[in-house]
What we know:
mainly beta, 16-stranded mixed beta sheet, Pectate Lyase C-like, 60% strand
Amino acid sequence: MNTRVFFLLFIFIWACKPENRCDCFKSNQPVSTEERTLASFQELEILSVFEVRWVEDSTYKTLITCGEKLIENISTEIIDSKLVLKNNNKCNWMRSQDKRIVIEVHSPTLKNIYINECCDLISTDTIKTAVLNIDNHAGISTAKINVNCETFYFSVHAGTGNFEVGGHAGVAYYYNNGNSYFNMENCWADYLYLKSNSTGQTYVHVTKELGATVAGRGNVYYYGNPYKIDRDETAEGRLIKGD
């Protein structure tokens, strides 16, 4: 049995590209941090499992913290004003997953964030911009951010996770599909339009107008006293006034 496992592992490693063939033997210890100065960007795309922390700054840079032998294969490429984060190391499953690779992203602001792999997204400062769009296609992910924008889009297309947003938006659009929990009650929106097709609960805060489609088992709880409410409840979940 051990011989078979060793043989399969050998074949797997040999199938890797030559430049990545030794990645399987790289440890995630000792931990080191590398700073990279970048060209300007307005968008962020996450393609690998990371903990991503956004920091408001007048400069554009990343700080990558992980095993020092892994850093060189962490890609921070700028493509059409979009920072793309990707882990090009192989055999990541062979290393301890207790601590994720941490990437600290510094920029004045962000306009679009695309999450295409499981990750933790954290903003240490408030993201200030006219329009902010966050689009999540990952299986499992979390977010804890603060925003201040005129228009805010937050969409989760599948999977599960816990998403916390605080701050203010003039108009907010939320889409929750899958098994995620939306904890948006600390993000005050003047006008809020949402669709929940989730088994998880959704919590929001709205002051003027609310339009809610509840198409899943999870309830939608709203706080505030909007003068207009349009509701469409097509499943077990309900739109409920929060305490």
